[in-house]
């Protein structure tokens, strides 16, 4: 992929120049911890002969019986190689090479930072003994900045280099304590001392060694990024981007780098003609699949996200058996095939009930990991949350577990939080048979609504019977042209037209009353009056609802499918520059009409009234059952008194 305009190449010779120093650090250095607390002396054996940490083994032949680690010494190489086997395993060698590489990259970037920030000049003046008193504070702040830069790049590089070697094994290393900001080298000594402690405590085998190193790197990055928010003189680092060609590793301030790998999909893909009914949902899913492909990896932005009309989050709801899973399989299959043609990495992941954990905070971590996997700007992502009513808890509902509420909080913050950035490289779909059980605020974060109502007409039922019967029979089709009713454009046009009037009885009353009072809804003022009337009927119809409606209107303005030829031949569209893609899309855009706005208001409000009516009915039925139980208990109690 192309480099960004402000991106500099971190040359290989700059990195390898620090290999000797990096190796020396890993071989050993003395460090007296200032903040962290050593755990080795406190760890006792569980029972005779069963150790609680990896055995320490000298790397020098003939010195096995001699003490090789003086008090306060850190020997990471010996620690990593300290397994029972006398040979270094491939994973141990991989970890050590990654650590040496990460230290070298961190030192090279720190040198660049020192050059652009003026720290190098101050270091030379200080070494010569002629550092001006007035510049001592600046010198101190720049040294602290160098330490933060060194630590973050080290953690970032370790996490990046170890990402492809991780297994299902996970390790909790806790918060990083020994974070020193005197200067870059002292900072690395503190980090390596703590990493050595974590390896001793957790890395009982190779899989846990990799997990420990990766977990430490993530914890270090998080701690450093938090400290850097208030630290001065970091512009020389945050305003630049470095790229390491050999590793395809990009350093962009205090943002973690990730490898753009595709996830391996093991699902049965469905073709669009295998989705019967669900015309609007199918049409929007097909459009969205192509919209994602317009993402520009160079600019890290999608023209649809800039022009309006990109669907970042959507909710598909319908009765059981109406085709939600089939819709997911169709959309994932389309994106997968498009990405395969273009050579783009594609990630699909489903957040399921397996991610709810009994440990406090773990469910939220699982949800955050799911979000981070999908939003990675270096890949095309599609995340689904099937049966979200079971997964995300409703606030105030006593039956919602702590884990469910944690997931709700993470999804709300990720889908429309203060730090949410919509680049247009991914989309999230929430699906439910009972959307009325989803927290109101979370449900409103779904920018688009896909009503998954399944087959509706006689022709739909003939088509689905024909499809599911397969070909192992001789029954004639009869007077019917198979799948002609599924011709998407005519079906969608009819579906949109049907929303010129509301479908739900409660909303229909509001619509008719407003039209009787002010006449045809043909101006912004009249449409606003209609929206206010809806809000008076349902207080949950807030400003966020208006934003979702206007976003849906912009989608309608983009009511076109990118030509199939553009997906089949990437040179025609996908591989063009951002501005060229934006111009090509703009030429296809349609003007917004009053009819579009009314239809989208009715579509969205219908769904909210439908959810509210179901939610209220469920609550009433529950109260009726509770009153019945109370009455029966009271009667039985009185009978017992005799």
UniProtKB/TrEMBL annotation:
Which SUPFAM superfamilies does the protein's record reference?
Answer: P-loop containing nucleoside triphosphate hydrolases
Q: Name one GO molecular function term.
A: ATP binding
Stretches assigned to the ATPase AAA-type core domain: 318-451
Top-rank taxon of the source lineage equals Bacteria
List the Gene3D superfamilies: P-loop containing nucleotide triphosphate hydrolases (3.40.50.300)
**What are the UniProt keywords, alphabetically?**
ATP-binding, Nucleotide-binding
User: Pfam families recorded for this chain?
Assistant: AAA (PF00004)
What InterPro entries does the record point to?
A: ATPase_AAA_core (IPR003959), P-loop_NTPase (IPR027417)
Q: What is this protein called?
A: ATP-binding protein
Instruction: Give the species this sequence originates from.
Output: Pseudosulfitobacter koreensis
